[in-house]
Amino acid sequence: MYETSILLVLGIGFVLGLKHATDPDHIVAVTTFIGKEKRIARGCAIGLFWGLGHTLALSIVGLAVVGLKIPMSKWLAERLELGVAVMLIVLGARLIATVHSKWHEHHHEFEWTRLGLRPLLVGIVHGTAGSAALTLLVLSTISSTVHALLYIVIFGIGSMVGMVVISLLLAVPLNLARERMAGAMRPIQVGTGVFSCLFGLYLGATILMNLQ
User: Fold this and answer.
1) What pLDDT shows up at residue 153?
2) Helices 74-99 and 112-127, axial angle in degrees (round to 10)
């Protein structure tokens, strides 16, 4: 019975990880990267690296909370979430600035380090902020530290799988648009950048209002 309950909690962790990948700020951030990629595989790799960074950060936070008994304060969580808002604005502005450059036309063959570094860092920021931190509350129901850390890993794997699927769903139509309506790509990229900036401003304004 005890083992069944643990498996149930771990299964819930995986499902919550899948759901966590669908948070709007996550999708907006990853879309700013995928919009510049010409290959579907590269778009999926971006989602994978985001999930890897997210899992890495969440594991470190979880180790501190569960293993070292260091609580995640509300003050810190709010500031981290504000950092996510600023990051979305920066990502959107960066995408808009590079749309008219020739950077993507001089893209070399697939390079994991260059392709994965920025999504990895973005995933790390997301993994330390917002609802990811709230999922640590579930850990209070798990008495075993080992099981709690395993829950974090399962949750992280779920978020990785979820973001890879989302990246695929985004990359396929974008690549079709690039092949059939090449002239539409710049407006799509600019629109993505503008939306990221606006969403970041909205998120930041909401957080600041709650801080008052």
Assistant:
1) 84
2) 150
Q: How many CB atoms lie within 10 A of CB 42?
A: 19
DSSP 136-184: GGGGGG---HHHHHHHHHHHHHHHHHHHHHHHHHHHHHHHHHHHH-GGG
| The amino acid at 89 | I
Task: State the number of CA atoms in the 13 A half-sphere of 32 facing the CB.
Answer: 28
**pLDDT digits 0-9 by tens, 21-60:** 888 899 999 998 887 777 888 888 889 999 899 888 888 8
Q: Which residue has the tokens 């969440």?
A: 58
Helix axes 24-34, 40-62, angle to 10 degrees: 140
Give yes or no for a contact between 45 and 117, defined as CB atoms under 8 angstroms apart: no
- The whole-angstrom distance between residue 172's C-alpha and the CA centroid of its chain comes to 19
3-state secondary structure of 23: coil
pTM recorded for the entire structure? 0.81
